[in-house]
From TrEMBL:
This is Probable membrane transporter protein. It is a multi-pass membrane protein. InterPro entries: TM_pro_TauE-like, TSUP. One of its GO terms (cellular component) is plasma membrane. It comes from Acidovorax carolinensis.
Length: 246
């Protein structure tokens, strides 16, 4: 019962975090590994569990969603699906030991990019948004998301900021739509590869969905700086825990 309660709690809070600004897998992945699930399977199962939460979060931000400069919604959908499929295929051939070693570095990099996203955007700002650069950026982040869901929302928010978006609610809505798309195609590939523990995933789905919708509606009334630094703190703590376990 303790393990079930842990997974449900982690999924609920993760769904809310993903709807707000990302970082939900910082909770679901450690929770699954703590209950004895191998790292690669834990990553895939946690990703499946958060899919409905992404959808609920996207619906919660439906009034605010808008594409970043240089991309249309149609192109964004295509890029999300292609990148997500590529990343999921890579996960299928990654050994558990290798994945365990790279996880804290991925978490740390994602957190740092999110923390310094505004400074990077100002540094790289100038000129008309490039569709080619935006396309490459979305493909790379979508592939990352298909491979390792941890920090996906943080990377997407940083990317949209670099592309010129400034409204955090619009960025959050788009982040959830892109996350849902790339996660959906990744989940299909995980399932074919036999990486998903369906009992745990289905239990966590229910909690993540509730957290996703509630978090999205609440986030629209929370000051942006509070959201940003709360996510940075979560990322740093989880990265530190994974380094400590190595």
């Amino acid at each position: 019962m303790f393990e079930i309660a842990l997974l449900l709690t982690a999924a609920f809070v993760a769904g809310a975090l993903n709807a707000v600004a990302g970082g939900g897998s910082f909770l679901t992945l450690p929770a699954l590994i703590f209950t004895g699930v191998p790292p690669v399977v834990a990553n895939a199962t946690g990703t499946v569990a958060l899919l409905p939460g992404y959808m609920a979060g996207a619906w919660g931000f439906r009034e605010d969603t808008a594409p970043p400069p240089g991309l249309s919604m149609r192109l964004l959908v295509v890029l999300s699906l292609i990148g997500g499929a590529a990343g999921a295929a890579l996960l299928l051939v990654t050994p558990d030991a290798t994945f365990r070693r790279v996880v804290p570095w991925l978490l740390l990099a994602a957190t740092a990019l999110f923390a310094f996203g505004p400074q990077l955007r100002r540094l790289l700002a100038g000129g008309k948004p490039s569709t080619a650069k935006a396309t490459a950026g979305v493909l790379a982040v979508a592939a990352y998301g298909g491979y390792f869901n941890g920090g996906l929302g943080i990377l997407l928010l940083a990317l949209f900021g670099l592309l010129g978006q400034t409204n955090l609610n619009a960025m959050n809505g788009l982040k959830n739509w892109v996350s849902a798309l790339l996660t959906a195609i990744a989940v299909a590939i995980y399932a074919v590869g036999g990486l998903v523990l369906w009992r745990e995933a289905l239990l966590m789905m229910v909690a993540a969905t509730a957290g996703g919708y509630g978090g999205a509606r609440a986030a629209r009334r929370i000051p942006a700086p509070w959201l940003r630094w709360g996510i940075v703190a979560t990322g740093l703590v989880m990265a530190g825990l994974f380094f400590w376990r190595q």
